[in-house]
Amino acid sequence: MNKKADIGLIGLAVMGENLVLNMESKGFTVAVFNRSVEKVDTFINGRGQGKKIIGTHSIDELVNSLSSPRKVMLMVKAGKPVDEFIDQLLPHLDKGDIIIDGGNSHYPDTIRRTKYVESKGLLYVGTGVSGGEEGALKGPSIMPGGSKDAWESIKPIFQSVAAIADDNKPCCEWMGEEGAGHFVKMVHNGIEYGDMQLICESYSIMKDLLDMSEDEMHDTFSEWNKRDLNSYLIEITADILAYKDEDGTYAVNTILDTAGQKGTGKWTAISAMELGVPLTLIGESVFARFLSALKDDRITASKTLTGPELKYSGDKKSIVQDLEQALFASKIISYTQGYALLQAAAKEYGWNLDYGKISLIWRGGCIIRSSFLDRIAEAYERNPDLKNLLFDPFFAEKIETAQQGWRNIVSSAVMNGLPVPALTSALSYYDGIRSENLPANLLQAQRDYFGAHTYERIDQPRGNVFHTNWTGEGGDTTSSTYDA
Hints:
Elements: E1 7-10, H1 14-25, E2 30-33, H2 38-44, E3 53-55, H3 59-64, E4 71-74, H4 80-89, E5 98-101, H5 107-119, E6 123-130, H6 132-138, E7 141-146, H7 151-161, E8 176-177, H8 180-209, H9 214-224, H10 232-242, H11 264-275, H12 280-293, H13 295-302, H14 316-349, H15 355-361, H16 372-382, H17 393-415, H18 421-433, H19 440-451
Parallel strand pairs: 1-2, 1-4, 2-3, 4-5, 5-6, 7-8
Antiparallel strand pairs: 6-7
Helix pairs in contact: 1-6, 8-11, 8-12, 8-14, 9-10, 11-12, 12-18, 14-17, 14-18, 15-16
């Protein structure tokens, strides 16, 4: 009798295929199915030929080829296709079997699906998988959450195929209940948006304000990658800037300046609004992509709307040093806001998130991997209840060291008319969080004036609310919408 498969996978697009090949290379037998069944035969007779991969042509055949407890991983488009496959699988599975969604599903869908599948006596896992096509094949960062009882069954497979960090630990750990895994992956992607936008703004300052050549920019990013900014995104930026087409043209200069997105950054910003977290930098990074898409409008505006002439007459070496400091300080703010969002979600949904552990599994395989993440893990090791990364001595000191260069860069960009929304919003957040007093007292007075929304007083205990009849005609009736 042929050996049963250790896991089944549905969805043979490039991510699915690469994950299958990764699992097989680690000693697991994998059964595969695809809605377009001809893809199964193409894969089995192509990249999967001669390997411990079982091709199947129906859901029933797939399930029957699996060892118990049966584990079926979905690598299909997020949304309706996931629900459709869950409903197709349920009649064929038994109590204790596991359905795994490895796509970029929105975490509320994963919360709903976990409850639904558990109500049928089965287990459900929603897992983030980061690293793109290469990561799927060679080792991604994996962020599983959902039915905790499923973890021991999937752990050997997931930790075997995950990336391995420098300390030989797999970049995969259990994240938490219900939609925790997909929420963590969503925040990862939001931070990725922020990192990329900050790098792009730094590139713009080098190129447009400092008139640096591609070789100079390549050298600069390469040097930065040896210090605090060491990361995958800085590394590939250096590579991109040096890459030439066959005609000798730098490839980056031939690319249209309109950015695409798949929606996870937008989800992160919306979640922050729902949970009341000031995720300003990531929000601006999402909006920057929207603005880039308005290419025709920008062309029109560039012909009529004026601004200052781009001109920098100072020491180039000095401002590049300032730019390194500004980029690193802003990166700290981006992660500060991202971890604040994770904490807010854990409180809202009752998830037991381990923030240090999250940092450690992002060190390899994923897009935001960097040495910086070790510092975050150390911060949470020093204080597991750390409320804000800026309250950690290491990050507070780094921000203090970088602060003057950061301000110099934002000032220079603004005075020269260069849009730097992420760098600017990061600095504004820093100045806001360190301000004991903000002008929101006037804002609350305005709300009370036009809507009787009430306010608290500095000379009274928190929680006591007051209303002023500002015009003498408003009366004493108040609204019930004050919330702080």
